[in-house]
Amino acid sequence: MSKKVPTLLALALLVLPMADARPVADQREEHAQLKLALDELKAEVIVLERQVRSMQERLDRNSGQVNALITQIVDNVSAIRQAQSRVAEGSTSALGSVSGLGERLSATNERIDRLSGQLAELKKLVENLPKLPTFTTISPGNPDQLFAAAYGDYSRGNYDLAISEFRQYVETYPTSEMADNAQYWIGECLLSKKQYTEAIGEFDRLLMLFPKGDKVPGARFKKGLALVELGQADAARAEFTALIRLYPKSNEATLARQQLGDRLS
């Protein structure tokens, strides 16, 4: 908050005890100054609220990027292991196929290079994530504190508590810009608990309640991953295909194409 706010409050406190001892004209002027001071104070508070909201939105976007990178890294590690297995099989069964072995090794090296780059980017993102304040108590009617507390509990692995807080946010502030984000993180909490069927239900709820929200592509992608974990390959393929068709330029569409090529081909 700017240094102007304490000055305005001091002015307001000085005006109040002197008001009754002055002529009416002076009282009116002082009341006008007091009103101006209070109006400027309200403006300062609004600015601070917007700054907090902006910080939370940046944090949420960065968290989505981190999750996407982690998914890419896991997929690349799996692909590297498969490539190494094929190389080992090829070297024992066909020692004469030197050119084919070289191509496999080259492809593996390329994947390792990409993996190293992704790890560096992930480290950079994590280092740049803003630190959320810790709230021992949540002020009634404060959506920013509630969301921050919920996300903090998610980050610390307190998934049940985070689910309760995110759900409270959605129910209390359904028209907030962050309501779809809160609903999304309920699904993420359930994924972390490996409760895939329940997670799918929460992602479907997001699609129903916030069909135009910016978390829709992420929800559809994570729903597809949950279907893969449940062994429902056809349903997962349909979900990824729909995601690519509806949001072709999104990061999640890129990841969905990778899933279709690597795990569902």
SSE layout:
Layout lengths: L3 H15 L5 H70 L4 H31 L14 H13 L3 H14 L6 H14 L3 H14 L6 H14 L3 H14 L4 H12 L3
Unreliable spans = 15-19
Largest sheet: none
The count of strands amounts to: 0
Q: Gyration radius, to the nearest Å?
A: 27 Å
Classify the beta-strand content into a percent band.
under 5%
User: How much helical structure, as a percent, in the residues?
Assistant: over 70%
**Shape descriptor:** globular
Give, in order, the helices and strands.
HHHHHHHHHH
Helix count, DSSP H or I runs of 4 or more residues = 10
**Helix/strand-derived class?**
mainly alpha
Mean pLDDT: 75
| Span between termini | 55 Å
Give a brief outline of the structure.
The chain is an all-alpha fold and 265 residues long. 80% of the residues lie in helices and 0% in strands.
